[in-house]
Design a protein that fits this description.
117 residues; alpha/beta; two-stranded parallel sheet; two-stranded antiparallel ribbon; 3 helices; 6 strands; globular
Length: 117
């Protein structure tokens, strides 16, 4: 986005009240990304290290407080999802099948793109 289009993208996530969480918030704001965070006091924000050699890739993730998705997260997510054309999630949230399946069903019903890695 490079700050050219404000709020064209919304990022939802769970962050810790930590240095990495502060960096993520700052960088998203600088890029013009609208954010919806659930902050876990004393938690560590997830991060991933990626090693690339030629066409080979290795990822090592520390999911941190992403595992602590609050029960009302789906409701918060869906408020913004109604405005979206595309919804993308990372594997960090695959442990919450209930949320993923609800979002997938919503996207199928509304003919929206749902993607994940």
């Amino acid at each position: 986005l490079n700050g050219k289009v404000k709020n064209a993208l919304t990022y939802w996530g769970v962050v810790g009240n930590c240095e990495n969480g502060a960096i993520l918030k700052k960088k998203m704001e600088e890029a013009g990304v609208k954010t919806k965070y659930s902050v876990v006091e004393g938690g560590a924000t997830a991060h991933c290290h990626i090693l690339i050699q030629g066409l080979k890739r290795c990822m090592v993730a520390r999911i941190g407080c992403a595992i602590k998705v609050p029960p009302d997260f789906y409701d918060t997510l869906m408020e913004e999802a109604k405005k979206a054309d595309l919804i993308y999630t990372t594997a960090y949230f695959m442990h919450r099948k209930d949320i993923i399946l609800k979002v997938a069903a919503y996207c199928a019903e509304k003919n929206k793109i749902f993607a994940f890695n």
